Amino acid sequence: MIESPWIYLAALLLCAGLFPFLETRLPWRIFKVLPAVVLTYLLMTALSALGVWQHNQALADTRQTLLDAALPALMVLLLANCDIRAILRLGPRILAGFLCACLSIYAAIVAVFLLMRPLLPADAWQTLGSVSGGWIGGTANLVAVSQAINASPNALANALLIDSLCYSFWVLALFASVPLQAVANAKLRARPLAEDIAGSISDAGTSAIRPDMGALLLWLGGAVLLGQGARALAGAMPPTAMLGNASWTMLWATAIGLLISFTPLRRLPGSMPMASALLAVIVATIASQADFRGLSSAPLFLLTGLLVLLLHGMILLVCARLFRFDLALCGISSLACVGGVASTPLLAAAYAPVLVPVGVLLAMLGYVLGTGGGILLSALLQSIGP
């Protein structure tokens, strides 16, 4: 049994790196269903349930210190590369489509929560609030929201399962819609987005320069320092029923990351690889205090997640009919929310290669909005209660 904080930290780092290491080297099918971050969570949960480490005060203090430093640093790193000016240049039609996708997800979560509330556990609002952060931004937003609202480890476990398994279903459905775009656009009376923006966006990707050790360490040190600055600013803010110290910290870290994105530092490579590594460590740390008992309600939560996505799709199609969004804009906007920057460019390329930059930029916009929106929706779900 592990009792030393340093050995515990070594175990965290080893487990956090295991599945990302294997995912890039082995073509296992499981990685197409459960991403590395979810497998890391399940592994750490299993080790915790088996008593591999002792749940003493020293390890609890180590865990809390690590999370206090890493979570705001993660938000800074995640948004430092975001090109807000390029996003705003996309035009009102594209931004309106993305806004409709976001609002339809929020509306669907509230509606399905009201429907399923009698069947779900009391902390279901924490699970769905966390999912809302992930389904507007990404897994990092999901984790940030869960910590900002002080979600239980079991609520986070269910949120991660919803995020990964329901996302897999939704990706399949969206890719299956690609051959239908001509017929769908005729019924929606929509002009194809690709015809409007061909050649108008030349570069929406991030730097392809491989970061060196110095850049990675500079990003890590700077992000931790700025994250602690966000924590200090949060301490000066008045706590409210909706926004406590943890919520203010995440919001300030988001604002600091966005400010960096307007500086030349945005072009310095290394922030996204460091953010991915830090996310794996954070997930492993949170999972190290959990167990499998809270996963008994996972099937109900998976059904809830699927209902949310189906209702989101229906609302988005109604918006498409009203505002004449074409199927490509609907699909890209939806996956930019639910899937993030890893999968959205692939779907965009399937619709039309010229749409790839649109997919990247909308997914980045989701990172900007996910944490704040998830915190606000969590407060709404808590207010309507069990």
UniProtKB/TrEMBL annotation:
Key word Endoplasmic reticulum present: no
Superkingdom, natural source: Bacteria
tRNA processing listed as a keyword: no
InterPro entries: DUF819
Pfam families in alphabetical order: DUF819
Keywords, in A-Z order: Membrane, Transmembrane, Transmembrane helix
Transmembrane segments: 6-22, 34-53, 65-82, 94-116, 167-184, 216-234, 246-265, 272-292, 298-320, 327-352, 358-381
PANTHER family from the UniProt entry: DUF819 DOMAIN-CONTAINING PROTEIN, PROTEIN, PUTATIVE (DUF819)-RELATED
This protein's name: DUF819 domain-containing protein
Lineage of the organism: Bacteria, Pseudomonadati, Pseudomonadota, Gammaproteobacteria, Lysobacterales
